[in-house]
Amino acid sequence: MQNSLKDTHQSDQTYTFLEHIGKPVPKSKLIGKRVCDIIFGTIFGIVSLPIILFFGIAIKLTSKGPVFFKQKRVGYMGCPIMITKLRSMRNDAEKKTGAVWAKKDDPRVTPVGRFMRKTRIDELPQFWNIVKGDMSLVGPRPERFILTQEFYEKWPDFPQRLRIIPGLTGYAQIHGGYDLKPNEKCKLDIYYIDHYSLKNDFSIALKTIRIIFTGNGAR
Question: 134: Cβ–Cβ under 8 A, 6 or more apart, which residues?
Answer without folding.
Answer: 2, 75, 81, 82, 83, 165, 166
